[in-house]
Every structure is written in structure tokens, then in C-alpha cells.
């Protein structure tokens, strides 16, 4: 059973639905597994808890 973990900033629920569908479809196409076996975990990190290039993303 494939388990996919996605770490990202907060997104709208409609965007996450689409992402989960597309990631699932990719695994079904690539591995030939049933969609029911694909799990997608979205871990959302707030902008004040994420940094890049020496700065919090909240400060950009």
C-alpha cells in the first residue's frame, strides 16, 4: 500500500481534494494498484513555523 506524505503550507480544501485525487491517479497509473490502497497524508505547516533562505515564510 503506497503512503504519500506531502508537507506544505495551508491550502484551500478544494485544492487539497484535487491534489489527493491527482496523486492517487499517478500511483494507480504508475504501479497498477487499486486506488483504495493509496493513502495521501497532507501535513500543513503554518507560515510562522517554516523557514527558507534564513527567513520565516511568514516574514516574506
TrEMBL record:
Keywords: Isomerase. InterPro entries: 4-OT-like_dom, Tautomerase/MIF_sf. Residues 2-59 form the 4-oxalocrotonate tautomerase-like domain. Belongs to the 4-oxalocrotonate tautomerase family. NCBIfam families: DmpI (NF041920). This is 4-oxalocrotonate tautomerase-like domain-containing protein. It comes from Streptomyces glomeratus.
